[in-house]
Amino acid sequence: MKNSFSETIHSVRHLTSCAVAAVALAAGSTGLMAQERESVTIGYVISKSGPNAGGADMTVTPNYELWVQEVNAAGGLTLPDGSQLPIEVIAYDDRSSAEEVVRGIERLATQDEVDFILPPWGTGFNLAAAPLLARFGYPHLAGAAVTDKATEFVERWDTSFWFMGGSADYVSAFTDVLVAERDAGRINNSIAMVSVADGFGIDLVKAARPTFEEAGFEIVYDQSFPPETSDFATIIGEASNSEADTFVAFSYPPHTFALTKQSTVVGFNPPVYYLGVGAAFPIFPGVAGTNVEGVMSLGGIDPNNALNAAYRAQHEELIGRAPDYWGSVLIYASLQMLEQSIERVGLDRAAVAEELSTGTFSTVLGEETRLENNQLRAINWVGQWQNGEFVAVSPEGGNGLAAVQLPKPDWE
Amino acid sequence: MLEHVVNGLVLGGTYALVAMGLTIQYGIARIMNLSFGDTIIAACFATYVLFSVFAINPILALLIVGPTGYVFNLLIYRFIMKPLVARAPDEGALEVDSILVTFGLLFVIQGVLLVMFGGGYTSYSFLNSPVSMLGTVVAGNRLVALVLSLTFGAVLVGVLYRTRWGMILRAVATAPQSAPLFGIDTNRAARTAFAVGGALAATGGGVVSMFQTFTATAGVVFTMKALIVVILGGKGSVPGAIVAGLLLGLVETFVAAYIDPGLTLAAVYTVFLVLLLVRPNGLFGKA
């Protein structure tokens, strides 16, 4: 008896909700729905815990937060009709697991039905996210992902956008510096190279071996180490014994810091000293506790660029710490491009993707930032610590780049 | 050759220092503490804060961090472990229960650290100065780890084998069922042992923070390493932890120097496997 009563109630309710839906649908066609929308929801899945949290917390998450704060403080995202909607954020922790990335994105797309999804941190996670985002029709602004296959990926998922270049780009720009130094007779022909046996290290070293050899260099010490490695006494010792004038380490932050500390202790100071992720962190000089002048790595900024300086000041003020000198600004620029696309074409995701692909934007990277074949190419590939800042360099300098200063001075 | 021995011993000193606390907690208090590494990380952060905010020398900070670790672990034992110990029908059940509880505790400590410090890398530089040892230049802070682990090891062995109190702890470790028959308060002994282990973990964390980059979520790495050392050395054996720690350091260094740095982990697990096949109770373990 009770059951049939509740069933009746239920069906009445069901009828009511059908009626409400019908009214809403009818109203929707007159545009009432669009006006009732109170916010734009933006979702992301990011590593807040686990081994990837350190990287995500440096390069990606602060920029998402900074951008949302700034946009909301200015009244929200502007739509083509001039109206503004605040951003509402839904963020999940992927606990540094690719399965969680997939689950989180599926949830954001199907259950939370967010308007836009921002990408996770890391090359592997972005590759896991790419097919999903393409399937659900979300533009994918892959920020913290270094890949040589971006061109292929763009063909496969035409709403994916790649903002950090590929291993080959970074290595060949660095090789140009090495060739210029060698031709000037300042360094010998030998390179000592170590790499972490994990995503970033494997990718970079794979690109580096043929590039160095083609340029006529001899890799006299070439070893990889497990990501768990914490002591580099032996590796630095062997690299030092190899008498190479160039030391290259494709490392993650803990290794980058430990390598620097060990090199300082034993006074290993080759003319060219190049490190991986972490050397472009603002905390790097403090961590090393020494003079890091001349240390080279990926990325770098143009200290004379006013837009970038303003961005860095803003980041420090709102987040409470400085952004890194490599990926941060690229991530932030990708968000600015998303914001401007929405302002031009509205919240239709396909139209936003089209606009990202073809439009020209005013970002922290420059007044006229545009993508080439869905890829950002205006990236600083090689950087060096000069006068307490990690600046973008090239052999000769110019065009927003400083001239590289080698040989590297002493640690002290 | 000599240089690799020195480097290996210095690296092994860190392993031994980190593992000693776990071997005492596991061997005497019979608590398999999976949150051990997170205690270490908490101590890393504490030392870091004391150094960077209050400008306290990290070596002096050990005098604050160590006793804090003692009190913290005493409270954990009193309020979380005690009920488990009281209701566990036998040793095996206690082990399983303690694994489950400390697994949860791991996430609590980690979560608190994440809220307080975020997920980023933390590192600072202290005593990263060259010290010449037998002709090999090593980092001062790593040498501190080696010296401290040997000192603590010597003190602990002295206390365990030369004092009445040490005898009580050993009695509880060897025969927890029979110890009360001799008027030993096993609960008190286990509580003290657990807290001493916690103090050692905290001190180890303080030292490790001087040279290693840490994140709020890196605790499990330390737990794993410490666990390997403890099992290699024989559970509850302090000399075992020191010998096994130094052995692992030497193996890693020699493999990195003469074979391939990529095989250090493989070498560690090979040694682990072989030793377990030959001596299932570890180097110094009793059958």
UniProtKB/TrEMBL annotation, chain A:
GO terms for biological process: amino acid transport. Residues 1-34 form the signal peptide. Keywords: Amino-acid transport, Receptor, Signal, Transport. Residues 39-388 form the Leucine-binding protein domain. SUPFAM superfamilies: Periplasmic binding protein-like I. It comes from the Bacteria. Pfam families: Peripla_BP_6 (PF13458). Belongs to the leucine-binding protein family. This is Receptor family ligand binding region. The lineage of its organism: Bacteria, Pseudomonadati, Pseudomonadota, Alphaproteobacteria, Rhodobacterales.
UniProtKB/TrEMBL annotation, chain B:
It is a multi-pass membrane protein. The chain crosses the membrane at residues 6-24, 60-80, 100-123, 143-161, 189-208, 265-284. Signal peptide: none annotated. This is High-affinity branched-chain amino acid transport system permease protein LivH. PANTHER family: AMINO ACID ABC TRANSPORTER PERMEASE PROTEIN (PTHR11795:SF445), BRANCHED-CHAIN AMINO ACID TRANSPORT SYSTEM PERMEASE PROTEIN LIVH (PTHR11795). Belongs to the binding-protein-dependent transport system permease family. LivHM subfamily. Keywords: Amino-acid transport, Cell membrane, Membrane, Transmembrane, Transmembrane helix, Transport. One of its GO terms (molecular function) is transmembrane transporter activity. It is found in: Cell membrane. Pfam families: BPD_transp_2 (PF02653). GO terms for biological process: amino acid transport. The gene is livH_4. GO terms for cellular component: plasma membrane.
